[in-house]
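User: Some background: our group keeps a shared notebook of sequences we're curious about, and every so often someone picks one and asks for a predicted structure to add to the entry. Today it's my turn. The entry only has the sequence so far, pasted here. Could you supply the structure so I can complete it?
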Amino acid sequence: MLGIAVSAVFLFLVFRKIDLDKMMAAFRGMDFRYLWPALLLTFVSYYLRAVRWKFLLFPIKRTSLGNLFSATLIGYMGNNIFPARLGEFMRAYALARKEEIDTSAVFATLVVDRLCDGFTMLLVLVIAFFTVSLPPEQAALHQKLVNGGYLMLGLYLVVIAFLVLLKKRTEWTIRLVSLFLRPFPDALAGKITHMLVSFIHGIRLTSSPSQFAGIVLSSLAIWATAIWPVDLLLRAFGLPMPLPASLFIMVFLVFAVMVPASPGSVGTYEYAGAVALTALGVNWELSVSIALVIHALSFFPVIPVGFYCMWRDKLSVKKLSQHDGSGAPA
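Assistant: Of course. Here's the predicted structure to add to the notebook entry:
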């Protein structure tokens, strides 16, 4: 319910003073030919995520790229329509079931996967700050983003430090976590502790330089193919801008996804995209129109494709909810 309330507040902020006639005029002036390459690049980005996931899974098993791509699409479909980022669990379970791998080990690779995303986005954020040109009146917004970048860096460093401690000094770290969990019911605390132990036993990092290079290069390619559609959609609305503008917009969109809103980041995504575009000198109605199309491109197409993969793999939300978390695929 909290997520829905957050989304409702941001949707209100987006549409409270909007001129619908101007927004409809923006849509009428859109060149739809740019949608097709933007859509193709979006799915290429999903495919590259499967490629990076393959590198992350090398220490565990040499998995099928087809199974990885299918599970990735199922995961993104799940994140778009189910609460609490359920798609991440669906993604892990789908692959574990197809490849007969321990589920906790698969989920552990997804945590590393998200850390890769975080550090790649920090690189994008730094490049955007040093290359984008904002009007002087946007200095306060620029400073807020710098602060957000520091917060993001701090968060990822804390997560990495915790994972290193959990891996190197598992028993000591589990005892420390148990102290923090004392105010909670024993059943919940025990379940969290069990999940942490299963999770850390599943983490296996590659020591191969070539595999590490594959992770780095695929991470850069993932975000290149995620940012390129933003540039194409700006052109679709008659707003060709330098590349740093697309990087700047993507930084806002990433922060929007981090806000605990409804599935698919409805509301927060549109508001963040519109704020970024207005900071670049675009009027509000056109900014909202562009943000809506950018979001729709990443939101709607993957849903039917993900459901198809889910149906083909005989995976259901009911089966997922019945999974006991023991690590053995059903």
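Suggested note for the entry: Confidence is low (pLDDT under 50) at residues 324-330. The first helix runs from residue 2 to 15.
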